[in-house]
Amino acid sequence: MSYLGVGVSPGNVPVYHGSNLKVVDRRVRLAELVLRFLVVANGLAAAYSLVQGLRCVVSMVRGSVLYSKPLAWAIFSCDQLMTYLTLAAVAAAAQSAVYAKLGQPELQWMKICNMYSKFCNQVGEGIASALIVSLSMVVLSGISAFSLFRLYGGNKGKNSARW
Which InterPro entries match (predicted)? Predict the structure, then answer.
């Protein structure tokens, strides 16, 4: 049992099905929740990237370029949201992996990578690939910001002559 119940749920959870009460012994570990969050966040980022890719293909086929400021703001905002979501998921998973690798004696969490080395290697590979996804989302967000703020550029050549 961890200190203050941070790492493990209480265990016995009452579940109601109609009038029957059943007790389910299910221990939810923090690492399990973090890895699920990482998978969900990367799934959302992949779905969003697929939608954006389809939008880009359709705009290329039509031959239209993004001139709408509201659409540019929506794309920029969604890119920022996905970037921060993937970065948060990678950071949480990396912290969980550090706890699995090194343990936390103050919280009575033991090193588990000594016992489950293959699983820990696979988690490490997954976190490394998720980090690459997060960095690519940062680059995509930068491109989106450039596309948005160039719409506000105006005539810089005329204004700079006055100074």
Answer: CASP/CASPL, CASP_dom
Vertex 130 angle, CA 8 and 105, to 5°? 30
Token pair 């209480």 in the structure block, residue: 10
Q: What's the full length of the chain, in residues?
A: 163
Q: Given its phi and psi angles, is residue 162 left (phi above 0), alpha (psi -120 to 50 degrees) or beta?
A: alpha
Q: pTM score, two decimals?
A: 0.69
Kindly give, in sequence order, each residue whose CB lies less than 8 Å from that of residue 113, ignoring residues fewer than 6 positions away.
Answer: 100, 101, 120
Rounded to whole angstroms, the Cα distance separating 147 from 55 reads 15
Number of compact structural domains in the chain: 1
Query: Three-state SS for 156?
Result: helix
Q: What's the pLDDT tens digit per position in 42-68? A: 899 999 999 988 988 888 888 876 668
For residue 69, tell me if it sits in a domain. Answer: yes
Question: Residue 8: inside a domain, yes or no?
Answer: no
Side-chain half-sphere CA neighbours of 97 within 13 A: 19
Q: Which pLDDT does position 81 carry in this prediction? A: 93
